[in-house]
Amino acid sequence: MAKKNKQKQENKNNDLNKLNIIDILKHDKPFEIKDDGLTVKVLDSATLKKFKLANNKPRKKDGLENEKNTNDNIVEVSDVKKTYLSGNVATDVLKGISFEIKKGEIAILYGKSGSGKSTLLNIISALDRPTSGKVIVNNINLPYLSDSKQTLFRRDNISFIFQNYNLLQNLNSYDNVETGAYLQKNKAKHLNIKKLFKDFDLEECMYKYPSQMSGGQQQRVSILRAIAKNSDILVADEPTGALDEKTGQIVLKILQEINRDYGTTIIIVSHDPDVALLADKVIYLELGQIKEVVTQKRKWLTEEIKQNNFEEIATT
Predict the structure, then answer these.
(1) What are the residue boundaries of the ABC transporter domain, all occurrences included (predicted)?
(2) What pLDDT, on a 0 to 100 scale, did the predictor assign at position 108?
(3) Residue 278: which of 116, 101, 105, 118 has the closest Cα?
(4) Domains in the chain, ordered, with CATH?
């Protein structure tokens, strides 16, 4: 009898795995299919409602909304799960993530495409909400924030470096960098923009427009914009992904200098093992789970590497 029931269940699972998305949506009872480590679930209406509320609305106050970071941590993530919805189909992307990042650390979220690292970065920087779990960043408990307070949190606490630069095409480099400085409302934290261009060997680009610069120059200007904001935390999603190796080394050297000179906590998403060597902490992600967290002595890129690469790029 047990053998017969087992065979019946296996046949049912095989039938479900053959379904296309239209067939799946016709089912009114919850079930799940596992494929390549992702869990795809069809939810009943009550569970679907709970997931939608968790993903799109601030968490109701429960006495924990004012919880702060502990010790020297600036980021604390505890048992974070993220489930994306498409109709009544749910896909688990993060599956109980927990880690800490200390003030002033360079941390890498490392993993292959589909590991959940960009989703995790978006949650840490209040661009997205966790479905469940705790996320405290710079003494702010993020899941409890309204949409407008999320925006204020990003303005006051996070600087962004984008892989595709996101420079304003109608502004020159100086004005693009100044837009970052404008977002810093604390006058005591304002930086001298012309000095930034000089310090990072970009004086020749100061009044050029994005269309007049190479990809590497645009990326470095976008980094200056993030520096000019002078936030406590800087996040970068694959900052060297669109760059050649030499220009990528320059960008990474600049990030190390930001960390050294300003004490900025830097969180980088990457799948490059060479980038991982430059961090104090590497958080290895695989299929939405943490495989390992490694604290290490970072490798410093030398000033000679940076200068030699500048000179070589200038002559090509």
Answers:
(1) 75-312
(2) 98
(3) 105
(4) 2-56 (no CATH), 73-82+92-314 (3.40.50.300)
Element at 140 (helix H, strand E): strand 140-141
Q: Radius of gyration (Cα) for the chain, nearest Å?
A: 23
Q: Is the dihedral of CA 180, 182, 187, 190 positive or negative?
A: positive
Edge-first strand order for the sheet with 140-141 is 31-35, 38-42, 89-102, 73-86, 132-137, 140-141
Between the alpha carbon of residue 168 and those of residues 149, 194, 242, 247, the distances in Å are: 25, 19, 18, 21
pLDDT in tens, 206-251: 999 999 999 889 988 998 999 899 899 999 998 888 778 887 888 8
Place of tokens 């690469």: 309
Question: What pLDDT does 244 receive?
Answer: 80
- Interhelix angle for 303-314 vs 245-262, to 10°? 140
